[in-house]
Write a structure and sequence with these properties.
This protein has about 160 residues and is mostly helical. Helices cover about 75% and strands about 5% of the residues. Strand 1 and strand 2 form a beta hairpin.
Length: about 160
C-alpha cells in the first residue's frame, strides 16, 4: 500500500504542475504565442515527473537530474526565439517555458505552496500591463517607441545625420 500511495502522490504532483503551467500557457496562447497551454503544461509535467522520481528514488544525485531538466528546457526555449528584420521575437515565451519548468521542479519536489506562488508571480509578470494600478509602473519599451517624443527624437537624429 505504501508504494501505491507514493505513486498517487507523484501523479498528484505532476497533475498540479501541469495544471499550473496550463494557466500560464493559456495566457501566452491568448497573446498569440505559438507555445500555448498544452506546450507549457507538458514542460511542467515532464519537469515534475523527472524531479519527483529523482528526489524520491535517487536523492543522492537528484540535483544532476534537475540540472538536466534546466538545460534541456533551455534548449527548448532557445528554439522559440526568432530574429526577424532587426527585431527579436519569442523571448517572453521562452522565458515562460523556462519558468514553468521551474514550477514543475518545485512542485515535483513537493513544494506545492511555492509552486502556486511561483505561478502567480509568472502570471502577474505576464499580465502586468493589464493590471490596474500597477500597469503604469516602469517604462514599457513598446509604448516609448510609438510615443510622439520618441518619433520627434528619431527625426531630429536623422536630420542631424543629413538623412532627411
Amino acid at each position: 500500500m505504501d508504494e501505491l500511495s507514493n505513486d498517487l502522490i507523484f501523479v498528484a504532483r505532476m497533475a498540479l504542475a501541469a495544471g499550473l503551467a496550463f494557466l500560464v500557457g493559456w495566457e501566452r496562447e491568448g497573446r498569440g504565442s505559438p507555445a500555448g497551454d498544452r506546450t507549457h503544461a507538458m514542460v511542467a509535467l515532464g519537469a515534475a515527473a523527472f524531479t519527483s522520481i529523482g528526489v524520491e528514488s535517487f536523492p543522492a544525485t537528484a540535483e544532476k537530474l534537475i540540472a538536466g531538466v534546466v538545460t534541456g528546457v533551455g534548449f527548448l526555449g532557445a528554439g522559440m526565439i526568432m530574429r526577424e528584420e532587426g527585431s527579436v521575437r519569442g523571448l517572453t515565451t521562452a522565458a515562460g517555458i523556462w519558468s514553468v519548468a521551474a514550477v514543475g521542479v518545485v512542485v515535483g519536489a513537493g513544494e506545492y505552496v511555492m509552486g502556486v506562488a511561483l505561478t502567480a508571480f509568472i502570471l502577474l509578470i505576464l499580465m502586468w500591463e493589464r493590471v490596474p494600478l500597477i500597469s503604469n509602473l516602469g517604462v514599457v519599451k513598446r509604448h516609448l517607441e510609438v510615443s510622439e517624443e520618441f518619433k520627434a527624437e528619431r527625426a531630429a537624429q536623422r536630420r542631424a545625420r543629413g538623412e532627411g
